[in-house]
Amino acid sequence: MSRVAGFALLICVALMGSTAHAADRMQPGQWAFTTTTDGVSRSFKQCVNAEEALSANGDTKTARAAAEKKAGASSCVIKAYDVNGATVTYTIECRGSLIESTQTYHGDSSEGILKSTRAGKKATTAVKGRRIGAC
């Protein structure tokens, strides 16, 4: 995975998370993620806590505010953010990269596409996640 795609993925995962109510798009806990870029897959695990989740589970306004707070700590800027049903879509500019993400959540699983552009070079990463238990 390119350095840009790797950084974009870290931002994507950092913006995901959960609050504890019945309508959560993403449940809290330990998650296993698999990313695939240019035919190369990588897997990793991450604990998703309730505070991180607001950007996945809130309405557009609340979720964008949570994402902006998280992105600001990384010197990134949220350009667009939308929540539509189970799908969260955003565009973020970060350290010279433009990152577009669309992620669909199913409570205990998710899938989506992360597109990044840096210096004219484009990368597309498929992201799949599943909850595997408590942290």
Notes on the protein architecture:
The chain has a 7-stranded antiparallel beta sheet with strand order 2-1-7-6-5-4-3, with helices on one face. A hairpin with a 2-residue loop joins strand 3 (76-84) and strand 4. Helices cover 21% and strands 50% of the residues. The protein is globular, with a radius of gyration of 14 Å. It has helices at 3-14, 54-57, 60-72; strands at residues 29-37, 40-48, 76-84, 87-94, 97-105, 109-118, 121-133.
What is the rounded Rg?
Answer: 14 Å
> Roughly how many Å apart are the termini?
27 Å
Number of strands: 7
The second-level CATH architecture is Beta Barrel
* Highest CATH level, the class: Mainly Beta
Strand-pairing-aware structural class:
alpha+beta
Give start-end ranges of low-pLDDT stretches: 17-22
CATH topology: Lipocalin
Portion in helices: 10-25%
Work out the strand percent. Answer: over 45%
Number of domains: 1
Mean pLDDT: 82
Secondary-structure element pattern, one letter each? HEEHHEEEEE
Order of the strands making up the biggest sheet: 2-1-7-6-5-4-3
Largest sheet: 7 strands, antiparallel
